């Protein structure tokens, strides 16, 4: 099953220079706990923005047009068809983890969404693509805990695709 996961500010901003424009440890923990022992799919720029190495205990797929992309301990794929075929055969969840173009490409195939909304405005250069929310039903919304390390108000949302 394909699943999208991302965090955004209240304007839909998701990145700045291929990195997160905020520091929210509880969201990073949520991302880790949700994706652990599953597969992550991301574009090359997102992968490099995360340090160019796979996250522990997750299979990472890097989608790139570069036929000779040099990366170790990850699966390199060059087309959305390759990713979709992998996800269809995969027993676990395959998480789409960015950036904007990757979300745009795979959102039509996703059955579930995990979205963190940070109730603040940040500066950045990457926004989540437009989404037809009529195709999705909010299944859960949980307010995140603010503290001295998680300074911004935020909440976690889970959506299921509405099937006709």
Automatic annotation (TrEMBL):
Key enzyme in folate metabolism. Catalyzes an essential reaction for de novo glycine and purine synthesis, and for DNA precursor synthesis. It catalyses: (6S)-5,6,7,8-tetrahydrofolate + NADP(+) = 7,8-dihydrofolate + NADPH + H(+). Its EC number is 1.5.1.3. Belongs to the dihydrofolate reductase family. It comes from the Bacteria. Pathway: Cofactor biosynthesis; tetrahydrofolate biosynthesis; 5,6,7,8-tetrahydrofolate from 7,8-dihydrofolate: step 1/1. Keywords: NADP, One-carbon metabolism, Oxidoreductase. Residues 1-161 form the DHFR domain. This is Dihydrofolate reductase. SUPFAM superfamilies: Dihydrofolate reductase-like. Pfam families: DHFR_1.
């Amino acid at each position: 099953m394909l699943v999208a996961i991302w965090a955004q500010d209240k304007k839909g901003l998701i990145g700045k220079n291929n990195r997160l424009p905020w520091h929210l440890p509880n969201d990073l923990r949520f991302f880790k706990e949700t994706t652990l022992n599953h597969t992550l799919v991301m574009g090359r720029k997102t992968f490099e923005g995360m340090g160019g190495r796979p996250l522990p205990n997750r299979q990472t797929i890097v989608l790139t047009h570069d036929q000779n992309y040099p990366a170790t301990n990850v699966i390199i794929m060059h087309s959305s068809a390759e990713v979709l075929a992998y996800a269809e055969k995969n027993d676990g969840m395959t998480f789409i983890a960015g950036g904007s173009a990757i979300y745009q490409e795979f959102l039509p195939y996703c059955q579930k969404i995990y979205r963190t909304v940070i109730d603040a405005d940040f500066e950045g250069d990457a926004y989540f693509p437009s989404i037809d929310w009529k195709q999705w039903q909010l299944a859960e919304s949980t307010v995140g805990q603010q503290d001295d390390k998680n300074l911004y108000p935020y909440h976690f949302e889970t959506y299921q695709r509405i099937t006709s």
